C-alpha cells in the first residue's frame, strides 16, 4: 500500500524571509511513550502537542481539522498544546523519559528538580535548552558549543545522558544528573560546565547527526564527510570509521536491537552496516521513478536528507531531495512504497508503528500511514538475542552456520 497522508501541521504565524526567522522544520520528535510530539516549526518556535495513541484517533483529528478549519478543543483537564519560544532557530530535538524514584532512592532527574519527561532543543547560537514537557517551562541551558547544535540524542535506556552534534565539528556528552551549580541568568538558569562529560573530536566538517544505539554501547555520528564515525559510549573513544559513501553522510540510525546501523548520504545511497565488524551488509540506491531522468539529475535530485528504522526493525523510511518519501523492507533492495512530498528534511516513525512524521523546508509536518507488520517468531527471537549479543558472540555460538548468518543479518 502506498502511504496515505493522514494530517498536516502548518506554522501558525505568517512566514518571514529574514534569516533570523527561518521557516524550515529541521527536526521532529515523538516522546518514547508516543504521548507527545514536538516539531521545530520555524520562526524560533517549537510546538509541543499531546498526541493520540492510535492511528484511528489521528484520522479523526485530521477529519475534524478539515471540517472545522482547526482541531476541536480537548476535554478539560487533558494535556494542552504548548509553544516554546526558543529565541533562536531550532535545529535539533530530543525527548527523554527518566524513571521516577523508587524505594527512597534519589531520582537522577530530581537531583536538579527535573520532571520525568523533558525536551532538549539545539539552537542556532550553540545553546541547548532543556524544557519541562508537562508545563512548557524552560529548566536550564547547556553551554559549550561554539556553533549551531544540529542534532541531539538521549540515551535510550532512560539515563540522563545527552549527546549533541554541532557545526563546531564536535560532539559533546552531557550528564544531566551530575552535581553542578545552576547559575541564574534572568529568568533562566545556565548549567555549569561540570555537567559536560566529554568532548568528542574527530570530524573535520560540520556534524549533522548523532545516534546512540538502543543498548547504549555505541554512538554513530555523521558529518559533511564520506565516512561516519562510530564511538564507544563506555570509553568515549573512536571505534572505527565507516567508509563506503561517495559523498557527505548526513543521517544515521541504529536498528531497535542495535545489530544494524544505516547511514544516508548525498550520494543517493543508504548503506546498512554491521556496527560491530564494520562490514557493509547492503546498499539501497535511490533511483528516479521516471527513466527519462539522466544519471546526473538522478544523483542531484535523490540526495538524501534523513533515514530512520521502524520500531520493530523490519522497515526503513528515507526522505530525499527528489520529493519522495520511500519505505523499504529490510529484506528487499527496492522500496515497497512511495509518497510524494515537497522539500522533505527529516522523518521519524511513531514509537508504536503505523505512521511516519516528516518535516519540510516550508515549516510543515506531514503524517503518513506506514506498513503494519506482525513480526515473525524468527525475527522476534533474533531481535531478542541481538539485544544482548554482539556479532562476535553470535559467531562464537555452537550453532549451524545458516542460523549464525540469520542472526547476524547476513541472510534476511
Structure description:
- InterPro entries: SOCS_box, SOCS_box-like_dom_sf, WD40/YVTN_repeat-like_dom_sf, WD40_PAC1, WD40_repeat_CS, WD40_repeat_dom_sf, WD40_rpt, WSB_SOCS-box_domain.
- This is WSB2 protein.
- It holds the Pfam family SOCS_box.
- Keywords: Repeat, Ubl conjugation pathway, WD repeat.
- Pathway: Protein modification; protein ubiquitination.
- It is a single chain.
- The chain is mainly beta.
- It has a single domain, classed as Methylamine Dehydrogenase, Chain H (7 Propeller).
- 10% of the residues lie in helices and 42% in strands.
- It contains five helices and 30 strands.
- The chain has a six-stranded mixed β-sheet with strand order 6-7-8-9-14-13, with no helix packed on it. A four-stranded antiparallel β-sheet has the order 1-30-29-28, with helices on one face. It has a four-stranded antiparallel β-sheet with strand order 2-3-4-5, with no helix packed on it.
- It is globular.
- About 14% of the residues have low confidence.
